[in-house]
Design goal:
Protein name: Nuclear transport factor 2 family protein
Keywords: Signal
CATH architecture: Roll
Radius of gyration: 18 Å
Number of helices: 4
Distance between the termini: 53 Å
Number of strands: 6
Organism: Arcicella rigui
Structural class: alpha+beta
Shape: globular
Largest sheet: 6 strands, mixed
Length: 142
């Protein structure tokens, strides 16, 4: 009985690790696509990593914004052209799965903007797997 229990626990632990490893790569791929979209000046495609919901939460220096459309409008207002957007680079510091379908990603962001001056900071993203798709449900960038 102990062997069966140990074998079962080992199987579930390995399966959970494999799932997290695969999901980690999916999330990192989405962040790569977002970076490419941003660097192409395409805010709409950048936003594809976010949850299209009124419950999306974005926390920045201006406070809390709710909703996908409000977040998109804010990005368009604050980054109206390619010079404002600059070239985005993410440095991922932590990818932590809090539960099977929830992940916290912490990192640094940097915008190289020769005409307007470079800016950067840190971010934390809460990801949730919704209907089989990883999406950012909360973004805190400073």
């Amino acid at each position: 009985m102990k062997k069966l229990l140990l074998l079962s626990l080992t199987f579930f632990a390995l399966n959970a690790f494999a799932q997290s490893k695969q999901d980690r790569q999916i999330i990192l791929n989405i962040l790569d696509k977002q970076t490419k979209a941003w660097n192409d000046g395409d805010v709409s495609n950048f936003m594809k990593g976010y949850w299209e919901s009124d419950s999306l939460m974005y926390i920045g220096k201006g406070g809390i914004k709710y909703g996908y459309e409000g977040t998109l409008a804010s990005y368009r207002k604050n980054y109206p052209d390619k010079a404002s957007m600059g070239t985005l680079k993410f440095d991922i510091l932590h990818v932590n799965f809090l539960a099977k379908n929830t992940c916290l990603v912490v990192g640094k962001w940097h915008l190289a903007r020769p005409e307007k001056g470079d800016i950067g900071g840190h971010f934390s993203l809460i990801w949730k797997k919704i209907k089989g798709k990883w999406q950012i449900i909360a973004d805190h960038s400073s």
